[in-house]
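Annex B. Sample input.
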Amino acid sequence: MTPTRPQGADAPQNVIEAASTVSPLAQTPALPMPASGQLYAAVDLGTNSCRMLIAQPKGSQFVILDSFSKTVQLGAGLEASGRLSRASMQRTLQALHICQRKMEALGVTRMRLVATEACRRARNGRDFMRQIKRETGLYFEIIKAEEEARLAVISCAPLVLPDTEQLLVVDIGGGSTELVWVDISNVAPNQRAQSIMRLHSGFGAQAQGGARVVDWISIPLGVATLKDQFHDVEDDGARFALMSWFFEEQLANFSPYNSAQARAGFQIIGTSGTVTTVAASFLGLKRYDRAKVDGLHMTSDQIHSVIREYLTLGPEGRRRDPRIGRDRHTLIMSGAAILQALMRIWPTDKLSVADRGLREGLLYAQMSADGVLEDGPFL
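Annex B, continued. Sample output.
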């Protein structure tokens, strides 16, 4: 599959939907406007994981009340068959039953539940959405890559540095990687984060003098799909090098890739399990601590040092390394290959680490649409 690109300067209209929006797969009744203190939920059903957050608005922010994450490997075997397997769908349904019980126990009525790359690509993806509705009562929608990229961008807005003029947000998923280039050079430094958050209404809805999306791209290669592309290469180091080179090739038509960019005022924010795992390894965390990882700034030398250590450990060493974790050891090198390619080709020697992404973007979009957040940064 080729990378997804926009067909024009504007994103499709009406890409933000409140939780009460009617799904094309299931006609859901309109929900009343939220009462004070009402809870919101967001579920991200990706190629590798199922993740949920339940939150409550508080001023310009929201407070997380419950969360859930489970590796379900929904995209296992998709590259070969073009379909979601029965085993992967069953694992996913088990995880979604847990999400449903958690939301019901807390009385959540405002929710946005989305599926991404695996379900976009699978021939039986929409059939699976209907099966989820029948068996769990949850109404999922398959969102476009464009919306996935936008939600990742707004979730990272609070991490934008005051002196940043050109921003690249990278979201490395299980089945795809989204890159969004944002120009905020014409925005006052103290307004840059808020300007990016206003992109929740669409990449095409850019106010004069606000954040401007220069370009974006969705590459159908994430940690799971890139790993599957090179599963037959036995040598660990050779496989890593091939994955990194292959990923870089997919960026040839991304306009900022071919543009001269000044090092000053350039910032990359990376959001993904790969980025947070590399950060946790750099910090030597045997038990993950979001407070230490989210917002961390790493140099390219520090990132490359961690990746070299991963290669030295080899597959068995990575499996035993507590900083990587049992759920991620088989995928960390494909993610590291993507990360290394990105750090190699853009004019910066620093990366900002974001332990946030699609779920936070979904929560912010819902709350913003409902008007329950005060103006200002969140999280």
